[in-house]
Structure formats: C-alpha cells, structure tokens
Amino acid sequence: MQKTSDFKYTFSFTAYFVYLLVIIKLVITSQNYIIFLAGLLPLALLSIVKFANIKNYRSELIKAASIIVIFICIYYFLVNYNLRQSQKALNSIIVIVMYIASSFLILRNRKLLEIKYMRNAFLFISIFIVFIPHLLITGNLKFGAFYNLIDKSLITTTTVEAPLIISILFLLSMFDAVYNKKWNTINLFSIFFSVFVLMVFSRRGFIFSSIFSLFFYHICFRLKRKFLIYLSFLMLFLPMFWEIISVYIVMLFKTDLITSIVQRNDVNEIANATGRALAWTNILSIFFTFDYKYFFGYPGGPPENLFIEVKGEIGDRYSHAHNTFLQLFLDGGYFICIIFIIMLVRAFKNYNNARALDSSNHNFYFVLVVFLFSLSATETLIRLQQFSLFIFTFALLGFNLINLKTINNNFKPSAELKV
C-alpha cells in the first residue's frame, strides 16, 4: 500500500511539471497564449471552486499568494504598457494568476509537500526529459558537451531550463540526505548524477549557487540570527560582481589558465560570451542616477545599445540583463524593484516568525529561494513566461505556505514530513 501511495504522489508531481514544460514548449513554438489558458484552466477552476467554498483554503491562498499576484500583475502591466502591448499584458496576467491558483492546489496537499516525492519527480524529469534527449542529440558526455544546446526536438526551450531542473534535483537530494538524515541509494545517485550532468552542461555557476545556498541555509539554521536571513538578498548581486571582477583579472593576468578558471571565453573577448559585464556596467550607470523618468521603466523598451550585438545569433539571448533585479528595473523601473523587495521582505519576515515558533523545523523552500537569488545574479529568471519564472513563483509560494502553516499552528510536520 505504501509503495502504491508513493507512486501515486510521485506521478502527480512528475505529471504536473512535465505538463507545464510541454505547455511552455507549445506556447513558445506557436506563439499562441490560448494554449496556456486552456492548459491551466482545469486545475485553476478546481482551485477557484475550493476558494469559493472552503474558508481555510481561501484564507491560506490569500495570505500565501496575494503579494506574489500583486507583484506579477504590476510587472506584466508595466513591461507591456511600456511596449504598448496591453492585450499581451492581460493574457500574461491571466496566465500567471491561473498558474498560481493551480500551484497552490498542488502545494496544499500535505503529501505532495514531502520532499521525497518532489525529488523523485525531478529525478525522472532529469533523466528522461533532460539527460537522455541531450545525449541522443550530442552523442557526447565530455564536460561542456551539452552547453547551451537548443534543439526544436527538446522539451526544454531555453539554455537555463535544463540546468535549472538538474540543480533542483541536486538541492532536493542533498537536503534530504543532510537534514532528513537519508543517505540512501536514491539520494546518493541523484547527488552524483546531478553534479556530473551540470559539468557536462558546463554550468559551474549552477553548482556554485547550489552549494552556496545549502551552506548559507546551514549557517542561518545554526546561528538563528534574523538579520542573516535578509543577507540572502545580497545573493541577487554577489555573483554578478564576481563576473565583473573576473574581467579585470583576465586583463591583468592574460594566461589561458586564468581565463579557463574565471570565465569560458578567450582572453581577447574581455566582455565575456554573453556580454554580461558590459550590460551590467551600462545598466548600473543608469540605475544609480536615480532619475525619476525611469520610475516606471523604459517607454518603448530598453535601448538596444545597453547590450552587445552578436551577429549570427538567433533569438534574444543577448538582449537582456542576465540579472533578475536589473532586468526588473529595465522592464518596470524603480517601482517594480520596490515591489519586488517588499514581496521578499514579507516572505522572509514570515519565515523568521515561523522559526520563532518552531526552531527545529527545516524548510527546503528557503534553500530553493536562496538558490534562485544566487542564480538571479547572472541569469534573468523573472522574464516572459518561461519555466524559470514559474519555478521562481512556485518556490516563493511554497515558501510562504509552509511558513504560514507553521505560524497558524495547523500544520505540524512529522519526522517524515520535513520539507
């Protein structure tokens, strides 16, 4: 009976995320947002029915999701208003509200909050959606063989999605092994497999962000100092400054060894492969003017001269900030950045309150949120309707929900249920 139950909940989680990846793929391929609306509608309607009829459900959804909904709605309104695309703004807002409603329906299920089911789901996705398809296309397992592979046959649609999935598997298995004391075969396999695949992707930054988020969580959990929690906000910027510094290191020490350690590109390509350092310098110089005309972002969208131009590249890989906070500034100005910080402060305030009531309770979603902060320093996660945006939203929603359940004292995790 237990094995049947385990399979049921693992399958539910797996089906949910695979289904989401497929919907995103179809929308990006067809550029038809009706697919999103139709795909998310069943779960969203069920959540709406529960919202209307169950008082506790309504209360928890409002407390856990309201600030996220407000932030996302303002963000999509501003970015599409600046681009004069009001209809697209409405579609995007409806999609994200439906997604939050359906995610809450999943997260509110007590069993589906158990870390083992989420780990099993991401192990399945990592093997069958990421690893095997990439291996079939490249036929190569050398380090860097999967780097930035984009192929129409893949379900993952950006260069971030596949490494992000593998990183979440690493975090889940490490957290379960270290804090739930489960050094079992499946966790050990997941840890070694995820690190190996990330190296094949040549995603050292993802490994660094994963390890650092676990280390930071351990320090916060042991020292129990509230101010340390808010220091996690610095993760939005620290790797960014490391990459800027690395440019000058390469300029001072023009050797192949130094170049291979601090960045991927040749010593003569000082701006680095994606133009991150150049874009950050340009955007920061504008940000620190504190000019009121940028309060709501750039009318018409950010100027192209902020980014490098790479001939022969398709898509918009180079035309964004490669930093979530700075991209928010470009899309919605100082105003959306303020709302973003308010949303994070509220979430971490609830975490501190929850820890005060139950200091022994581990919370995996804290690790995931901090990991996404660190990753946000060199990647744009909140942008368009891509998998990274939905993972960011899912993680923050789960983080809020666990904290609020602890505060309300109507959800007491057992020894088995340590998330």
Question: What features would you highlight for this structure?
Answer:
single chain; 419 residues; mainly alpha; 15 helices; globular; transmembrane helix
Task: Give a verbal description of the structure.
This protein has 419 residues and is an all-alpha fold. The protein has one domain. 68% of the residues lie in helices and 0% in strands. It is built from 15 helices and no strands. Helix 2 runs antiparallel to helix 3 and helix 8 crosses helix 14. The longest helix has 34 residues. The two termini are 23 Å apart. Keywords: Membrane, Transmembrane, Transmembrane helix. This is O-antigen ligase.
Summarize the topology.
Blueprint: H1 2-30, H2 34-53, H3 55-82, H4 86-107, H5 115-138, H6 161-179, H7 185-200, H8 204-223, H9 226-231, H10 238-252, H11 256-262, H12 276-287, H13 324-357, H14 364-376, H15 387-408
Helix pairs in contact: 1-2, 1-5, 2-3, 2-4, 3-4, 3-13, 3-15, 4-15, 5-6, 6-7, 6-8, 8-14, 12-13, 13-15, 14-15
